[in-house]
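User: Hi! Is it possible to get a structure for several chains at once, not just one? Here's what I have:
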Amino acid sequence: MPRKSATPKTARRPGRPVGGGDAEVRAALLEHARALFLKHGFADVSTRQVAAAAGTTSAMIHYYFGDKLGLYRAMLEEAIGPFVASLQRLEQAGAPPPDLEGLMVGYMRMLATNPWLPALIVHEVLDEGGRLREQFVEQFAGRLAPAFVEVLRRERDRGALRADLDPRLAAISALSLCIFPFVSLPVTSRVLGFSVTGQEFERLARHTTRLFREGVAAGPGRQS
Amino acid sequence: MPRKSATPKTARRPGRPVGGGDAEVRAALLEHARALFLKHGFADVSTRQVAAAAGTTSAMIHYYFGDKLGLYRAMLEEAIGPFVASLQRLEQAGAPPPDLEGLMVGYMRMLATNPWLPALIVHEVLDEGGRLREQFVEQFAGRLAPAFVEVLRRERDRGALRADLDPRLAAISALSLCIFPFVSLPVTSRVLGFSVTGQEFERLARHTTRLFREGVAAGPGRQS
DNA sequence: CGTGATATTAATCGTTTGATTAATATGTCA
DNA sequence: TGACATATTAATCAAACGATTAATATCACG
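Assistant: Yes, the chains can be modeled jointly so their relative placement is included. Here is the combined structure:
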């Protein structure tokens, strides 16, 4: 016998819920949007999927963010916001000239601490036609990369680096050494058993900075 | 006055076309599928788009390849086939132990010569949940990476490399130095004015191999 | 208390997508 | 020359998608 209006199971009727005044639905949407969009890409994830993961309906996306792209933008803003802010803070604080090793290790630690960052870089920066690539490049790569070049040029002119070193190429090499081990982790963890957790991260960081300075060759001199 | 059945413009009626016996429609589909899928990703490109670019209809995709995924698989097969074949040829040919520099430069030249390869790597290998990632990893990264490790281990035991060098980490560094400059080219070309055409490629190759051997530090000894 | 702002569900709309089919025209070969 | 294989277009289908709306329930405040 079907009851009139009291559906007994989890089915809920429309209407504002009782408890929370805090925007927990909005936060849940952002959280699951980050997890899903960064894992599978923007086009591969539907608004219904995100809403279901967050325990709500796709209409809430329209309510809080306007549309799917609005949710994506808000998610990215929240994700890279802290990094852009800390970058600005560094620039304004009189720019205490950072040392090479500190810069590299700091950058790597940032990638290791936020495991979703490499995926974001792949989807947003490396991927052709990544949404918001413009913004990401301007606010992030466009400032970090020239800073790297400047540090290298200064160290070279100071005599600490080879005189014939091209700072631009060296910056690209440094960024490659710092970033690629993390964005390629899904592959290297399988084909090489690689990992970057805790102790292994320290080994990677030491190895990378030393390789950049000294290379892999044996002995103090050069060979052949 | 609308004519009865003779639509005068380019509109064509069904039926087998007159000339070609060669499968030029199939080839055109593969060609434009590669361009579009590698540029925008599998999910972002519709079968209608590919068909229109190839000057035909989406029914031809069904006719020649079964479905969208079949077209994608065939495109990838055609794209990476030559590389897998040459890899097998190298393995079977008694494995003439390759030198480090040759391996690195050869790998980089491969990326420079086929400009769509970096995009393929981003979409298929680095991207979480990339279709055919399994196959690509097994046939490509899963063979190239261990080969790299083996070469490094041999050179280290031979005394050419530092005794305390971890071959696994060194292999990851070498791959980073070789691959990342190419996959990050869409970014570095904008923020650093970087390029890898002709003469610039030679400079990059020389710089990279030398940095891997000797590092960036000045002088023959070490510092601090 | 009651009225408007807020938050939520369920239902639905129009579009696009991948896939398929019927019709049609050419090639091939006995 | 007729019959079957091949290749193509146009039309269409069901499903999924993004987006929107109407209904509904609670909250905040006078």
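Confidence is low (pLDDT under 50) at residues 1-9 of chain A. Residues 11-17, 25, 56-57, 59-60, 63 of chain A lie near DNA strand C (CB under 10 Å from a C1').

User: Great, thank you!
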